[in-house]
């Protein structure tokens, strides 16, 4: 207990990691926002270009197109032929990749600081000059379909998550998988990808984040030199897409070849909209730490170590998103136990927390763990950029990152109990279960060759 208390005191007096180096922003005349975070610990620069365009912006019939275009962004421009982009970055001693999510698509490079101009030059080129040939699209869409087979169709727990999201959300586009439905991928064309590129890939729909051993004034000049001549384009009006209140528990069962059963429970929950005034998302984050902070957290202690009803349990919550949030509980039954046994045990822990709350000692320990995770994550240049980009794309200012630590420190035990009672209830709940089928005759799918973002 002395060690944990000391950690709380240490963190309470620790300056924000985001404030540990100068951070500045500029908006170019064409609308591109540029944010620079200085970090002079190593002669390295991380460049991340964030487009506010993810799977939530897709239309039915073309699900997965945001991810498909991410692949196509490496297929060349008139100046940089297919495959050349990554070779140039590698030759400069760097690495690059990209990822697509519900809220955004992001492209990044990490390299020696003197080679930052190369990364920005290449990124600006493909923002406006992507080739998008039918031949390259025809090859790459097959890679994406294989990626779906490997990443989702052959992963029972991924199918359970996909089923849970499609059931929990009836109207909001979060119900659609980022990688897309297979039927849409099979019928997707180069014209679909081209339309997405023209719709969203514009400087006024992007944020450039640079973290590293750089001077802001130099980065702003480079950004203006390479991106400044790209013209802004009118963007589609984003209409509100609110999920109506859920009334009553929802259930979905997935039957696929698998070794073990599995349970996933998702509760609708809020996310940050006003970081300086909201308190519920911070309390929900602490609640997730109470349930699943480490090996001594409540779920592991009660379900795995004591009752042994589950071999694995977990809780998760992300408070930064463009759309609505979800608070997740999961568990894998121990031998001889069922998903219903695990569900009953998870419910028991939730009700106990609602009824009895948490002790001051438990709150202190969990806060230390949650805040320490935030601080240590910011020790990486790459994840500093990730935090900045996620906040900006979600409509929150990166300046709220300093507020975040103070707000987490201020969460009370009563607030944790209150959000548990308000949101972890059946009217907010969707339960997805895996009913494992025999594995005889099932051949595992190999990772697709050429898939860049398989991590």
How would you sum up this structure in a few lines?
With 455 residues, this protein is an alpha+beta fold. Helix content is 42%, strand content 18%.
Question: Topology of this protein?
Answer:
Layout: H1 2-12, E1 23-27, E2 33-38, E3 44-51, H2 65-72, H3 84-91, E4 95-100, E5 105-112, H4 116-128, H5 134-153, H6 156-168, H7 182-186, H8 190-200, E6 206-212, H9 216-227, E7 250-257, E8 262-269, H10 280-292, H11 298-306, E9 310-317, E10 325-333, H12 339-356, H13 360-377, H14 381-393, H15 400-409, H16 413-423, E11 429-437
Parallel strand pairs: 2-6, 7-11
Antiparallel strand pairs: 1-2, 3-5, 3-6, 4-5, 8-10, 8-11, 9-10
* Main beta sheet strand tally, sense and closure: 6 strands, mixed
Radius of gyration: 23 Å
Low-confidence sequence ranges:
1-17
Strand content: 15-25%
Helix content: 40-55%
Helix-strand sequence: HEEEHHEEHHHHHEHEEHHEEHHHHHE
Shape: globular
Strand tally? 11
Question: Based on helices, strands and strand pairing, what is the structural class?
Answer: alpha+beta
End-to-end distance, in Å?
Answer: 38 Å
Count of helix runs: 16
Mean pLDDT: 92
Strand numbers in spatial order across the main sheet? 1-2-6-3-5-4
